[in-house]
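Q: Structure for this?
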Amino acid sequence: MIKRPLPEPAALQQQYAAALLSDVLPFWETHSIDPEGGFLTCLDRRGEVYDTDKFVWLQARQVWTFSMLYNRLERRPSWLDIARHGAEFLRAHGRDGDGNWYFSLNRDGDPLVQPYNIFTDCFAAMAFGQYALATGDDEARHIALTSFRNVLRRRDNPKGIYSKAVSWSRPMRSFAHPMMLLNLSRELKEFIPPDEWESMNDGWAKEITDLFIDRETGLVFEHVSPDGSHPDTFEGRLLNPGHGLEGMWFLMELALERNDTALAAKSVDTILRILEFAWDREHGGIFAFMDAHGKPLQQLEWDQKMWWVHLETLLALLMGSVRLGRQECWTWFERLHEYTWQHFPDPEYGEWFGYLNRRGEVLLPIKGGKWKGCFHVPRCLYRCSELLKGPFPS
Amino acid sequence: MIKRPLPEPAALQQQYAAALLSDVLPFWETHSIDPEGGFLTCLDRRGEVYDTDKFVWLQARQVWTFSMLYNRLERRPSWLDIARHGAEFLRAHGRDGDGNWYFSLNRDGDPLVQPYNIFTDCFAAMAFGQYALATGDDEARHIALTSFRNVLRRRDNPKGIYSKAVSWSRPMRSFAHPMMLLNLSRELKEFIPPDEWESMNDGWAKEITDLFIDRETGLVFEHVSPDGSHPDTFEGRLLNPGHGLEGMWFLMELALERNDTALAAKSVDTILRILEFAWDREHGGIFAFMDAHGKPLQQLEWDQKMWWVHLETLLALLMGSVRLGRQECWTWFERLHEYTWQHFPDPEYGEWFGYLNRRGEVLLPIKGGKWKGCFHVPRCLYRCSELLKGPFPS
């Protein structure tokens, strides 16, 4: 395959912005609004609804996306209407009597799956945080903060009564928690006292650098022992490259804000290290899961190429290129950009495919489902289009 | 590809028996016995241990396999020793204080995952049932029956406190339960009063034929509403062809014993219907999961070709051919035999691969893991080699 040189940054910026505004957002605006309330996110290739279950992660993420774009890109009333449409549904149906967020609801809003998953509360807090910024709605702000405090309170036992793990025999910590909290606290920064905000983020950044970025290999482990060691077990060896790459741009963002050049460099070095390890040299793309020792995995989808992994990586690399001037990031960005734009967008029916097999062929012809909704694609397109405006390091 | 005609039944019988005795059993005898107790089932392509966690499903299934072969094929003392080695470990470490079976243990036998899974109790009951038959050990018989009664008692709420489903909003029944109970009660037939045994099996057979085999499509649904209807949801549309095919030979076995020709014919018709629907006409093999309406699935592994699915199908088809004289079963058996023997056995290092991608390439180069152990391969090889002895219908 002949490698075409990338277009100039201004043209690239145009490409990302146009995809967001003329392709991706219209797809969700057209197909996902349920007149009965909330969003229908199980959309097939053409945007037709193939299932009406409502997964609270995706309801909340869509509220977040439209609120965030309203706050940061353009105060378009129709975007706020969509955010309100989802927020009202969530407010009415999303929580149990204790304020915990259900994992899924049926079309009418009746709960289907209990609040076993702490990330649902995280996405709800993000959604209502951005929605409160957009509307000044005090109740939304209250919901965001209550959900955030719930997450902090539940963190040491996130699955609570639904946990199947025996607590004492192999205690493990998950990278997903400090990673998510780093991002969530940034979302709610306006609502958290500055001292508390700084000290929380100190803790999570330290947890990530001390425990999860492995000193020896430079890789991000998905689970570690409380002392940061790596038990030689399925969970202890597991790498989730997409998580590592996404988490590193969360960390880089904090480092950039604090002018912490050592932390920023560590984030970028880790991104490059993960890519070296997780890039599929045979078929291109980034593997979904890997074993740090190259042992066989439990995850049967380990070799699949997933949209969010590639999108988070584009954003991480562009941040490293533009904000830190790291040439290796731009070199990798070119490769990722080629792969991602060649494989994921669907020029025929719009929006992006989510799940490809190892060879890059479409595995599930969906635009939305249980885990893919209106979130990673628009977030990446928006953030990349902003970064591509420069200024570029000379 | 030129289709070679199958060898004569006597040669086929030899092929299945030799694979069992000269390849598959020696692999587990050589590599899986943990001198510290129990079995190491996470074995890579060469038989080397790549993880030491002990999954109770697989501990129990290996006890069952060696006990069953001792009971039915040959009273080889080394087989009984292996069964005892596993049974002792399970007896010492496998249960919580209430007699429920943990899902997994570490190498030393400390519990890792709580008894959330009712099938663990099923496999433990099967294991101790065959082991009790082999040894006459009263305690083993007691463990088998207690576990069986526990399964019956827990059946209406199998995950108990670990269930994440909201009970009232979408009650569903799972095919896996009556299917498993049909097989389990056959395993424990010697220990259950005949009247009770007959009436239990009447109930489960009726449940399968009335609720799970769909009148309209002839397919077996994985989950149905309590009235047998199919809600248009991910779970309500789900087909697990391997489960359907395996369950149908359990049902055929009951029908043959009872000389219930209508039920036997229904089992075979369902097998053929599932195969027509679930055979991959592009790459061969049987899909792991399908949607009854052809909608996209949640299961990312839906297009993979799994060992157990193909082995259960070989056995189901051979039973239909030999015991019922159904020509269509033989025609399909030839096709399945070709596909299975071409793709799953590993002539280089012995035993069989478990997980292939859609094209039939090895996806995970393991002989054992969290779900694959010493069970489906030897059970199928043994049962097929017995059926191939005939007599054949004229």
